[in-house]
Batch of 4 targets.
Target 1
Amino acid sequence: MPLPKDKAWFAAKTYGWGWGFPMRWQGWVVMVGFVLAIAVGAPLVKRGAVFFVAYCVALGAVLMAICYWKGEAPRWRWGSDE
């Protein structure tokens, strides 16, 4: 369940659907972990690009799940705070 703005790790985007940059240190830890996990998985390219793409898609799904769980509620926004 998405969190209220004062407790969310990830801010909702001003325009469009989804999340922007992290608002709390916990969110930054998640983002750094995501980037490091992609870097650690880079040797999968030697086995084939398909393996690396599948790995990145799985990491992206985990990141989206964390953003949904610990971020502001996702909805389409047109630039207003409401």
Target 2
Amino acid sequence: MENNMQTDKSQASRILYLDIIKCISIFLVVFCHTPLLNKNSVVGNIAMIICWGAVPCFFMVTGAIILNKEKKFDFKRYINKLISIYLIICIWKIIYLIFYNFFGYIKINAFSKGQIINYILLFSSLKGIPVGHFWFMYVYLSIYIIYPMFNLCFKNFNDYKNLLIFLLLAIFIISILPQTFGLILKYFNINSINFNEIINVNPFGKYSHMLFYFLFGGFLYKYNLYEKWKKNKIISCISIVLIIIGIIGLMLVKKYYANTFEWQGIYLKDGYKWFSTVLLSIGLFVFLQGRKYKFKYLNKILSYIGKNTMGIFYLHILVIQLLMKIDIVQRGTLVNTLKTIIVVFISAIITTLLKKIPVIKKLVQ
């Protein structure tokens, strides 16, 4: 997402770290899609575990940006943006439909008009078109619908701080803790207590755990820890500890469900809802928030990728699909890393070109 925040020296520095968090997050997202990993690889499994921190970081960045805008809330502009988000999702689903039909993966005439309408307009899917990752945009749209309420609270932060903290804790308790507590009880063979039904009193929806990350990002930006702890390395150390504990926790969860520390082509079950994911994501965000990015050209590359993540998000699956036409025999963490770099940069270049076309540039912003 583009942002219109002020660009004084301090603010520019903060924008840089947000772009870099987005850059690293999109690399992790692409890394975990169609992974070319050895099934017996423990290193590959650890890398895939780390990828679960990417999407939460995206939502924390989004919260950091749009919850801390200094501009006065414009309702007309908000409605236009809301409609724009929805229409862009619909257009990209049409692009996917045309793409997969053109390359022979599906035949449009195999679907009914109702199926196509549901697919394009009503957040449904069609067999043979991989749009599972679009859930990210569905969540973004749902959060944006209720965004004005949180925007009001952050604009009058001192008046609504306690309410925001209460909501953050409530969402955390209802949306994230039950899954972790449930697993702990299962581990100790306590099956009489079922935390799954707590969803019946969850007022925040199916993806409320992402609302937690969104709000937490707003708080992390508001209370820039490294501005307050410049001369103290304790925050950096704590963030590293959080990352390590988060990775270990998710590895143990994977071991419980898959009975292995190896990759084995098995994704972590409900990976974003684990308490360990919260620790990993916050650790990554805070660690990157406090880095001193001294390498001028590297900063430009990272910032370039970070500013084009929306286009990369939509395009990368299509680029991967074309890349997979090549018979890639080798498997491994390095091979998958190379795939990730190639896909990210091809998608970023296409995004840059599309941004130069006025009629369609909004599709990748």
Target 3
Amino acid sequence: MKRILCFLFTLLLLFAMALPFAALAEETIAGAAAFTLLFVQLFKVPLDKVWKIPTRAFAYIVSLAVMVAATAFTTGLTVQSALLAAVNALVSALMAYGSYEVTFAKLN
């Protein structure tokens, strides 16, 4: 139980530190992709010990959280901006997948 609380506190702290970065992600989807890549790599293994969530779904959830937070803090959330943030989150998550494959793929 203590590990779960520590994990949740670390997660909350990381999101609090990422809010200024999230506002920057609205301007560049690449910033959101970089944050998603680092965040997923940092929390993938500890999260698998608690819940079995597919990595790509987790990456999309993180990317969606970043894009919605960026939209909320910069232009405000409306239905249209939330839908646009969801599409941008998909693009950002796909960029994070590709960045991982290029960076960590084994060379043949």
Target 4
Amino acid sequence: MRKIGEYVKCFCNKCQEQTNHKILCVKYDPKVGDEEYLCEESYQIVKCCGCDNYEFRKEFVDLENDQYNY
């Protein structure tokens, strides 16, 4: 579970490369998954630490298989 103020490395559309981004806002979707399938999904507003560009980021975590999809 990501938290506000945490840093993540993701692709910046303005820099055109992987850069560090600071999470400014997080919204979790409680409707994802069920009792048989454990997963979580969140929507984030992030700010690039290189160019100060703001972007939206979606993160899906498959808790059963320990796999992340951004």
